[in-house]
Amino acid sequence: MSNISNLPNSKKVILKTRPDGDPHEDNFEIIEEQAKAPDDEEILIEVQALGIGAWIRTTLNEKAFHGATPIGGTLPSMGIGKVIISKSKKFSEGDIVTGPLMAQSYTTMPADFFTKVANPEIDPFTQIGILGVSTGLTAYFGIYDVGQVKEGEIVLVSGAAGGVGMIVCQLAKLKGAKVIGIAGGKEKCEVLVNEVGVDTSIDYKSENIDEKIKEYAPDGIDIFFDNVGGEILDIALDNIRDRARVVICGAISQYSHHDAVDGPSLYLRLAEKYSRMEGFTVMHFEEHYEKAYIELLELYRLGKLKAPFHIEEGIDNFPLALQKLFTGGNTGKLMVKV
Ligand code: NAP
């Protein structure tokens, strides 16, 4: 399509009320309106797939690190889509692009916000779920640059059966580390051992995390890669050994009460064990994205990086998908097929 007199209708997910706690479907509304005609230097994109990330919850607060979503505003989301009208020299119609598409079925935005997908032959779910900025690249910089994982080390990963967690486990294994994955439920723990290849798993919902860590790592862990925060962070701190690295990637257990976060009470273990705790966002590594993408792509092509995905069908299910992220309803990266 390249006809601006025949613009498609676009469905949008908008914020109706700010959630008090975890996000719920009722906090959102789907509206439908005609897609905006692109102005000069803008493109109209047909959205194909959107990633559901925990950071979206943080934008639902009145003050937010990633920028607050206003009441009535469209929810943010990163994803992949096809350019159907281009008023920019940067893209041609038919190009597959990635960027901040927002939670909607068609997007009209400045072309400069988007990047052309380097390997459009790879399906959008693998692009987002394994090679994406908030999956593969986050895992890569977190475990390699911040965690500095080495052969023979013991790595504990929380949120291990999620989008970031599954890739972290595999990247650590590829460096020759031993990996303990923490996840909620027997089924997720089985996927971690049988499909992702961790050495052992801990079901935090039914097992004693501290006892299980001590069973597998009586001398302590070298790295804790944290996606969850709260109580699990304290238990991990209590099990670090000398020169450990605690990588703060995220704290999904805390995002729904951002103003009253449960911080670690056992942080003095860092001093006792001459260890460090370091947080990061993937955006701090932006200048190295290309190098990491090329390495991840090679690993994927060699069959060394794989992960199940959780795909919800249709933009109408975006609110439900976001709700599921906070109740552990996903195994692997949660995405919406638009
Ligand atoms: P995900 O891990 O695919 O999904 C979230 C998982 O978190 C759920 O499946 C659930 O698994 C677990 N969870 C939810 N609420 C929990 C709670 N209260 N206590 C314990 N576990 C809980 O999500 P993701 O998008 O890959 O993100 C994982 C983490 O990485 C998040 O903290 C996110 O903010 C962070 N992240 C950071 C960056 C960065 O740049 N630093 C980039 C992307 C993502 P269980 O069933 O196992 O509980």
Q: Could you describe the 3D structure shown?
A:
By secondary structure, this protein is α/β, with parallel strands linked by helices. The protein has 10 helices and 15 strands. The chain has helices at 55-58, 124-129, 133-146, 163-174, 186-196, 209-216, 231-237, 268-272, 289-301, 318-325, and strands at residues 9-15, 28-34, 42-51, 79-86, 96-99, 106-110, 115-116, 154-157, 178-183, 200-203, 221-226, 240-248, 276-279, 309-313, 333-337. The strands form 3 sheets. Strands 3, 4, 5, 6, 7, 14 and 15 form a 7-stranded mixed β-sheet that branches. The chain has a 6-stranded parallel β-sheet with strand order 10-9-8-11-12-13, sandwiched between helices. A two-stranded antiparallel sheet has the order 1-2. Helix 8 (268-272) links the parallel strand 12 and strand 13. The two termini are 18 Å apart. The structure holds NADP nicotinamide-adenine-dinucleotide phosphate. NADP nicotinamide-adenine-dinucleotide phosphate binds next to helix 3, helix 4 and strand 15.
